[in-house]
Structure formats: structure tokens, C-alpha cells
Amino acid sequence: MEKENKRRRFLKAGGLAVAGAGLASRKATAGEAALDAARSAQVPDGAEYDVIVIGAGFAGLTAARDLSLRGARTLLLEARNRIGGRTFSTRYAGHKIELGGTWIHWSQGYVWSEVNRYGLGIVESPGASPDDLALLSDGRLRKLKPEAAFPRLSEAMGRYCDVDGKGGSTIFPRAQDPLFSNAFMRFDRLSLQDRLDQLRLKDDTRAMVGSMLAINCHNDPRQGGFVDMLKWWSLGDFEMGRLFDKLSRYKIAEGTGALASAMLGDAKADLLLSTPVSSVGRGGGMAVVTTTEGKSFKARAVVCAVPMNVLDAIAFSPDIANAKRAASRAGHTGNGGKFYAHIKQKVGNWMGMSPFPNPITMAWTERQRDDGTLLVCFSPPGKLDQNDEEAVQAALRGLLPGAEVLATMGYQWGADPYSKGTWCWYRPNQLSHSFAELRRIEGNVFFASADSAKGWRGFIDGAIESGAETAHEVIGYLRGKA
Ligand SMILES: Cc1cc2nc3c(=O)[nH]c(=O)nc-3n(C[C@H](O)[C@H](O)[C@H](O)COP(=O)(O)OP(=O)(O)OC[C@H]3O[C@@H](n4cnc5c(N)ncnc54)[C@H](O)[C@@H]3O)c2cc1C
């Protein structure tokens, strides 16, 4: 009964979280709603544009802004009742939290330039550089000091990535251009676990590496492709500490929602929220985009900016290449949980690690509070119901004995039909077989997504890269056509 009550309380909180996404950027969201109503009225069935952009995540927002600012009459169609896609700023008990994409870094040039452009600030996640580390290794809990444990982890990750006797540096010599060298192809069939099994790492070190691999692919390391680790290694300057800072330390002070709103505010595009697209037809130099409600809009070009994992839900006529559909059906591996757990204990700047199949592969302090600690936690798919406070408490106690969970908050990205997953991590062979295909233009239909970005694929930065590059290509196409 108590469990059921807790569940109801959470569901209520979950509902508030959705509304709360607006609270994080109340002004902007109210403005968007008004904008949406006004613009909806002005978009009659059959309306014609230069470009229709499908999806208002960062890839679609960037494309719509850049296209419209370069004079293309642009319509942005978004399935959900909000913009931002796999980012989702909200509040928990007075604190800003991010349910989706969160951390950025100055080495991620696309997002960094947007943050500067719109005058946004940066804050740090304290637990990303912890004072205490808990490691669950073969069922034993170890309390470690990061200054002793992290050099071992760094050294082990260096060995893990050193497939060329040069620290892995020859596999992706240009991190922003994954196909610059084909050296990766030798390793593309390997899973993260295959590579781990090639090394003889000692128990604790193996557990730390296993935990990193599970959070990186957000799944069972047997599912995640090894070459994506080599790609991240290159993006992280071939060094664990630097990579970790780039992945999990700095976030936008005002929230990702503020950046999304600022970009939308600059766009001259028409926007329709709550407008899922069901089909795209093309012929005679025009495209017809039809929504699930049966409305149709026409354009000279389309930018399809939906996640790889949901592309297959849209009907195309003529159909898109089989390889695109196959990649979408297989999906990338990112599909686990990310949630916040408010615990009663004050644990300081703490981090916990445990390898797959433990229910929490990594967790750290996101905020120290007067009434306890707010932890951010990551779990592999199917191992933990993040809505179930008792299950979360039991899982956390493996890392923090006696932890008392006061509340949890997360979003089920894998269950959402418009994302069907979290961040992109390719499966074995997807870089060889799917990456170029997912990017390939089909007639006047262009594809933009963080999931097929060249540099920080799977990141906000990659979404902006892809949106900007695609907008440029579409402008060229439209000019060539004019
Ligand atoms: C839990 C989690 C944690 C993450 N952590 C980080 C992080 O710390 N740092 C980082 O940089 N990145 C992180 N990411 C990844 C990052 O958020 C994404 O890579 C990026 O935001 C994706 O942008 P996108 O525009 O390519 O796709 P999306 O944001 O998914 O946008 C696609 C849009 O298309 C819409 N759509 C889908 N289908 C249709 C349809 N049929 N019709 C109309 N619209 C449709 C969707 O509703 C969505 O708005 C995280 C993601 C998640 C989920």
C-alpha cells in the first residue's frame, strides 16, 4: 500500500515535472505557447514553405533558425508539446535539474559558441570531481579515495584503448571526422565487452572500467560497439580525466531549456507543437509532409531531424534506403535510466561506481542540500524502475549502505515514442554500415541528428553541428534550384 502511495506521489511529481519543464524557463515557455497558438492559426492545411523541419530538438532548432535567418520560409513541426527533444530542464525542490542532456564543455565548439552567443552561464556538478568513491566489485563494497583510484582507472582505460601501441591515437586521428581514416574498421565488429575480455584487469580496476563502459553505452557492454569508445577517447584527447570533464562536469547555469528557447526566439520559422509527422512524400521537386492528424504541408525541401531510433516510424514515399530503416530498427544502444535520487544522508562530494549488470552503474552528488543530498544516477535498461523509490533505495544501498531515499525523479526516454532511447552509442558495425547512410540525402529530404553527427555524436554539440551543416546544405540546394 505504502509502495502504491509512493508510486502515485511519484507519478504526480512526474506530471509536475512535465509542467515544471516550463518553470525552468517560464518566460520563454509562456512565450512559446502564445507563439504556437498565434502561428498555428496562420498555418492552414496545404500551406507551402521553402523548408519543413521535422523535430524541434537541438538539431531541428539549429536548422530552423539558420535556414530562416538565411531567408528560407521555414515551418518547424514538433511531435511533443515542448521544444528541446532529448533535453528537458525542470526543477526539483528549488533546484534546476536536467532530465536529459546536461553537460557541455568548451571543447564542444558548436554548443559552446551558442552558449556564448546567447550570454548564458556555466555551473559545475560537484560530484564529477568527488572526494569519496564507492565501488561495488564482485558484490563487495570498497570505499576508495579518488586520488588513488582514478589514476588506476586512467591507466586501465589507456590500456583498453591502446589497440595500436600508440594509445589509440591512430584510430580516430581527427576526432571531428570519423571516416578520415579507415583504421577503425578492424575493430568495428567488437563489442565493448569483447575488448574488455581481451585484457587481464584486476578485480577493482575491471569493475571501474566496467562501470565506465556501461554508463557510456547506457546499456550492457555486450551491446555497445568498441569503436565508439575509441572515438570518445579521441574526443577526450586520449586521457581519462579530460574526457570525464568533457562528459560530466559543466552545465548551462540557466538550463538547456534556456538555450533552446533562445535559439527558437531567434528563428523566423513558424512552429507547430504537438504535431507528429506520419509521412513524407516527394515528387516533382516538392515534398508533402503529412501529420498524424491528417494535415499536409508542402515544401521544396525537408529536414528530418528526428532521432535515429524513431526514424522508422515515419512513412516515406518513395521509401528511404533500407539501410536507414535497418539502422533505425536496430537502434543505438543508449536506452537506460538517468534519474535523481534525493537521499536523507549528507554524503558530500561522493561518487559510486558498479559494473553491469548492477542496477546503478554510476551515481554522483549533483547538489548538497540542507536536508540531504541530491544524487544523479544512471542505470542500464531493464535493471531498475526509477519511479519505484523502494527499488531505487535498495539499489543505492549497494553503494551507500543505509541510504534513505526521500524522492526520485526521472524521465522514461526509452518508453517515449519520440526518442525511444537516450544518447547515441553505436552497436558493433554501425559506424561502418549505418553512419554514412543515416546522413545521406534522399532527393530533397535531408537528415540531421546528434545520432549521425561527425564530431560529438550523441551530444548536444553534435545535434547543433548536424543542424548547422544541414541548413547550409539545404540553402545550397535551394539556391541551385532557384
Ligand atoms: C538522459 C540523457 C542524458 C544525456 N546527457 C547528455 C549530456 O550530458 N551532454 C550532452 O551533450 N548530451 C547528452 N545527451 C544527449 C543529447 O541530449 C542528445 O544527443 C541531443 O539533445 C539530441 O538532439 P537531436 O536534435 O538530434 O534529437 P532530439 O533532441 O531527440 O530531437 C528530435 C525531436 O524530434 C521530435 N520528433 C520525433 N519524432 C517526430 C515526428 N514523427 N514528428 C515530429 N517530431 C518528431 C522529438 O519529439 C524531438 O523533439 C543526453 C540524452 C539523454 C536522453
TrEMBL record:
Q: Which residues form the Amine oxidase domain?
A: 58-475
Q: Which cofactor does it need?
A: FAD
Give the matching PROSITE patterns. TAT
> Quick one: signal sequence residues?
1-30
Enumerate the UniProt keywords alphabetically: Oxidoreductase, Signal
Q: Which GO molecular function annotation, any one, does this entry have?
A: oxidoreductase activity
Q: What residues does FAD bind to?
A: 78-79, 277
Cite the Gene3D superfamilies for this sequence.
3.90.660.10, FAD/NAD(P)-binding domain
Q: Which family does it belong to?
A: Belongs to the flavin monoamine oxidase family.
Q: What is this protein called?
A: Monoamine oxidase
Q: Tell me what organism the protein belongs to.
A: Pseudoduganella namucuonensis
